[in-house]
Specification:
The complex is a heterotrimer of chains A (354), B (294) and C (250). With 354 residues, chain A is mainly α. In chain A, 70% of the residues lie in helices and 0% in strands. Chain A contains 13 helices and no strands. Chain A has helices spanning 18-42, 45-71, 78-94, 99-120, 126-146, 172-195, 197-207, 209-214, 219-245, 256-268, 275-293, 297-311, 319-339. In chain A, α2 (45-71) packs parallel to α6 (172-195), α3 crosses α9 and α7 packs across α9. The radius of gyration of chain A is 22 Å and the shape is globular. The two termini of chain A are 24 Å apart. Chain B is mostly helical. Chain B is built from 13 helices and two strands, in the order ααααββααααααααα. Chain B has helices spanning 2-28, 35-50, 57-86, 91-113, 140-161, 163-173, 175-180, 185-207, 217-232, 237-257, 259-262, 265-276, 285-293; strands spanning 129-132, 135-138. In chain B, strands 1-2 form a two-stranded antiparallel ribbon. The longest helix of chain B has 30 residues, at 57-86. With 250 residues, chain C is α/β, with parallel strands linked by helices. Chain C has nine helices and ten strands. Chain C has a six-stranded mixed beta sheet, with helices on both faces. In chain C, strands 2-1-4-5 form a four-stranded antiparallel beta sheet, covered by helices on one side. Classes of the chains: A mainly alpha (354), B mainly alpha (294), C alpha/beta (250). Chains in contact: A-B, A-C. Chain A binds chain B through residues 6-8, 68, 74, 120-121, 123-128, 130-132, 134-136, 138-139, 142-143, 146, 255-256, 259, 262-263, 266, 295-303, 305-306, 309-310, 313, and chain B through 31, 82, 85, 89-93, 95-97, 99-108, 110-111, 215, 219, 223, 226-227, 230, 234, 260, 263-264, 266-267, 270-271, 274-275, 278, 291-294.
């Protein structure tokens, strides 16, 4: 994996041999696959739903990472596109549309909404952009609450999933595999995007958009497209959540929904492609347990977020790299001590530039 | 007439919250998501001091001022403990840091006072309404507008006429140069933050009688306040004042004319301003650039 | 007179009350190395900004490859063959040297909005070639921010070259370099110029560099063109010696 980092300096990975890295990736893939396959047989219904939520959040957080981690676009309104996906499915189920069609429709509608938002906000950057996306999301939320067709505050109940080609998707086990497969495809798509020329250019825009513009890059077009693609991902996640939850309420669009994936990708580490995914699983379960032991999970979530920001700003996945970095620094210091074997002061430690 | 009164009173409340936000943004270059949290703390502490009862006006004003001071104390403490660490971090991270503080503050309010709505009465003399030009206007609106006007004039004098105001402006423009010229930047930061938070607390106390008090109010108000800051222009107190009044008036006008649209007024005005004039109504190009970099 | 690659015609640019460029005209002939010199504040960087599309002039026109680009975006100018290096090298610090060059190659290939493809293999050759040309192949795995100032400037030149420009703008290519680095950079620029035949417009404080490289000189003074001509002629002009060269004890 290349460095995905932006302004934040990231310690380079320990120089692992290419073959080992491949083996590591393979091991991760096999482990994930094993867990996914085994889950429905080892977990009871209630907990399987937590896993379903986690899987949905994996996709959502990965899509948000395209914006925050790769393009450096701070959107605080991704819940809107998650919601668009969820409501597309909820409304479509009422008309008897089939799941594959509805998932595609959800991706399309959310992408369209995101694309329009991107065009609306194309003159703004930074904080103004962040607030404008937040405003768009809140406007969507208000719209949903005020509109009878969307069920108002109560939302749309009985979002059931139809069988596809004789496959009974309403069976919990089958549905779990279906959901995990969709999430997997979505995450793979974002991996592809991140490795594409488009993804490469996004990362360079993130670091210095003026330099990128003077290389002939159409910075705004990249921004709008990245925003649209992230919207598509959020839409798919929302659609899957609608099926899993079997009811779609305005909560799906509430602005805290935009903040959750950001916390997740920070928790896991946004310099890593799988960081948001790891953060999503961890955070979903954390919330689940917090809800059982405390009434004020807001308070605990805030403390947790603060702790990660201050003590582990590059996320949990950076733990090995941070440790390796620390070890290397210690080794260097020891080497310097050994080299210094005469009168005169100890040589000054090498100061990192910048 | 009722449109005007409600609009002005809502606008003034919004201005109280937004002025602190824009001060902190302009001087410290920190986007303080936690501002809404301080607003709620101010509202609940006022409620605690007043015990929800109707009090004489002087006592009411005195107690919400005291609550604002308590809130400011919490703010300054958090500046010492948390915000000092955030200045060096990339903007996205510091933004999330203040968001974390927002969660902590609303969570704390929830833990102390619970989720049940509380209601605070107006001061004794202002419970009723009066009639003017055929409209019924709550007397409490007069107090809100008066406090808002006193605040905007006070802020103006403070920034333009006092030595401290000059230091504040210097730090806002170039904190490095100001530091070289002998301004104690840390002290200016602490005072600015304290002042900004006190305004949020005051806004909370003053808003108490106008809303049903739940911890979630933090979220609603912070979004509106941010809208005001953006529409008015980053770091511009005067811009915030104008923007807050516009938003208040547009909202109360739409409530009577097109209720369905009223809830969207905020987003409509904001989108319009940002698309036409990204740096806000009274935002300078420099401050706008700083905001863009944020 | 040979073909004109870039023309600035009677350009006026103000910053507030300050007249940064006052009626400045300049012709850059295709394939030529042309230096703009002048004391600090003479308007060299502003002129570069106007040519590159960073600043819009109040009056005057800029032509690139026969097209009027006065109001064109930086991107449009790159498409017409303009590339630039900044005074303080701007590279993507958190990317490797190789990824930096790849960014430039992708940008020049156009159509990189393709998000469904991998980075095409055919670009790898061009990246290698560009790395080789600016002699950074052995440092390609380093992060750009870890490079020395001189290497960073070479990297930026390499990125500019990857765009296959017909006009290259170099704003003080040797600023902040040691004498050895300066010499190597001058040699590098000369070689690159010979190999590509592009036109180069550069500003420079180091007169040795200017006289080593440039075939044409334009002297700016307080935002006005003092004179333009071949280095030997310019060197002998009394007014030039007075305002500029003389002041440096040359």
């Amino acid at each position: 994996m290349a460095t995905l980092a932006g302004r934040r300096p990231v310690p380079r990975r320990p120089a692992v041999h290419r073959r080992w890295r491949l083996a590591l990736r393979l091991a991760v893939a096999v482990a994930v696959l094993a867990v996914v396959l085994a889950l429905p047989h080892t977990t009871d219904g209630g907990l399987l739903f937590v896993w379903e939520t986690a899987a949905v959040q994996v996709l959502f957080a990965t899509s948000v990472n395209l914006l925050f981690g790769e393009a450096g676009i701070p959107s605080f309104g991704q819940a809107a596109f998650f919601g668009v996906g969820a409501y597309t499915v909820a409304l479509g189920v009422g008309h008897g549309w089939s799941p594959p069609l509805l998932l595609l429709a959800a991706i399309g509608c959310a992408g369209l909404a995101a694309g329009l938002t991107g065009l609306l906000t194309w003159r703004t950057t930074g904080l103004a952009f962040a607030m404008l996306t937040l405003a768009v999301a809140q406007a969507c939320y208000t719209l949903v609450i005020r509109t009878d067709a969307f069920g108002g505050f109560n939302g749309i109940p009985s979002v059931t999933i139809e069988p596809v080609a004789g496959l009974r998707l309403d069976d919990p086990t089958v549905f779990w595999y279906f959901l995990a497969g969709c999430v997997g495809l979505g995450v793979l798509a974002f991996w592809r995007i991140s490795r594409s020329p488009f993804g490469h250019t996004l990362r360079s825009i993130r670091q210095d958009e003026v330099r990128a513009a003077f290389l002939g890059v159409n910075v705004r077009a990249y921004r709008v497209l990245a925003f649209t693609l992230a919207g598509c991902g959020a839409g798919l996640a929302g659609a899957l959540f609608g099926y899993a939850n079997q009811i779609v309420t305005p909560d799906a669009m509430f602005w805290t929904g935009s903040a959750t994936p950001i916390i997740m990708l920070l928790l896991g580490g946004m310099g890593y492609f799988l960081g948001p995914a790891a953060g999503a699983v961890l955070f979903t379960w954390l919330l689940h347990y917090l809800n059982e032991i405390t009434t004020s999970f807001l308070f605990v979530t805030g403390l947790l977020l603060l702790a990660v920001l201050i003590f582990l700003p590059r996320g949990l996945l950076s733990l090995p790299a941070t440790a390796a970095d620390l070890a290397a620094r210690l080794a260097r210091r020891r080497a310097r001590r050994r080299a210094w074997s005469g009168p005169g002061p100890e040589p000054a430690p090498r100061v990192a530039d910048e | 007439m009722i449109v005007l009164a409600t609009g002005l009173s809502d606008g003034m409340l919004l201005f109280l919250v937004a002025s602190g936000l824009t001060l902190i943004l302009g001087v410290m270059r920190v986007v303080n998501f936690a501002h809404g949290g301080f607003f709620v703390v101010g509202a609940y502490v006022s409620y605690e001091f007043l015990r929800g009862q109707s009090r004489p006006i002087w006592l009411f004003v005195l107690l919400i001022l005291a609550a604002a001071l308590v809130t400011a104390a919490v703010g300054v403490a958090s500046e010492r403990v948390l915000f000092r660490r955030l200045y060096q971090l990339p903007v996205e991270t510091s933004l999330l840091g203040t968001y974390a503080l927002l969660l902590i503050l609303s969570g704390a309010v929830q833990l102390v006072w619970g989720q049940n709505p509380r209601s605070q009465s107006e001061p004794a003399a202002l419970v009723t309404s009066f009639r003017l030009a055929g409209a019924t206007i709550p007397r409490y609106d007069i107090l809100v507008v008066a406090v808002g006007l006193v605040t905007v004039i006070g802020l103006h004098l403070l920034i333009r006429r006092t030595d401290w105001g000059r230091q504040l402006t210097a730090v806002a423009e170039d904190r490095f140069m100001a530091g070289l010229l002998g301004v104690n930047v840390n002290r200016v930061f602490a005072l600015t933050f304290g002042l900004g938070i006190a305004l949020a607390g005051l806004g909370g106390g003053l808003a108490g009688p106008t809303l049903s008090l739940v911890p979630d109010v933090a979220l609603t108000f912070i979004i509106q306040a941010f809208a005001v800051v953006i529409i008015g222009g980053f770091g511009s107190v005067a811009g915030s004042f104008v923007a807050a009044l516009i938003l208040g008036l547009v909202h109360s006008f739409l409530v009577t004319q097109a209720p369905w649209l009223a809830d969207f007024s905020l987003y409509l005005v904001m989108a319009l301003v940002l698309v036409v004039r990204p740096r806000g109504l009274l935002g300078s190009r420099v401050a706008g650039a700083a905001g863009g970099a944020l | 007179m040979s073909e004109v690659a870039l023309r600035a015609h009677r350009v006026v640019k103000r910053f507030g009350g300050h007249l940064a460029l006052d009626d400045v005209s300049l012709d850059l002939a295709a394939g030529q190395v042309h230096a703009v010199i002048g004391p600090n504040g003479a308007g060299k960087s502003t002129l570069f900004g106007v040519i590159a599309g960073e600043h819009r002039p109040e009056r005057g026109r800029v032509w690139l490859a026969g097209r009027d680009v006065t109001r064109a975006s930086p991107r449009a100018r790159v498409r017409l063959g303009l590339a630039r290096a900044f005074q303080v090298a701007r590279v993507f610090g958190e990317m490797t040297v190789r990824d930096n060059i790849t960014s430039a190659v992708l940008a020049s290939a156009g159509g990189t909005l393709a998000f469904w493809r991998g980075v095409p293999d055919r670009h790898a050759g061009r990246v290698d070639e560009a790395l080789e040309r600016v002699r950074l192949a052995d440092q390609q795995a380093k992060l750009a921010r870890e490079l020395s100032q001189g290497d960073r400037k070479r990297l930026e030149i390499g990125m500019a070259l990857a765009l296959d420009p017909s006009v290259l703008l170099l704003d003080e290519p040797t600023a902040g370099m040691s004498p050895t680095e300066t010499e190597a950079t001058v040699e590098l620029i000369r070689q690159l110029w010979r190999a590509t035949g592009m036109a180069i417009l550069l500003t420079e404080h180091d007169m040795k560099v200017v006289f080593d490289l440039a075939q044409q000189l334009t002297v700016l003074h307080y935002g006005r063109v003092l004179c333009t001509g071949e280095p030997e002629q310019v060197r002998r002009r009394d007014d030039v010696i007075e305002v500029y060269l003389g002041g440096r004890g040359g």
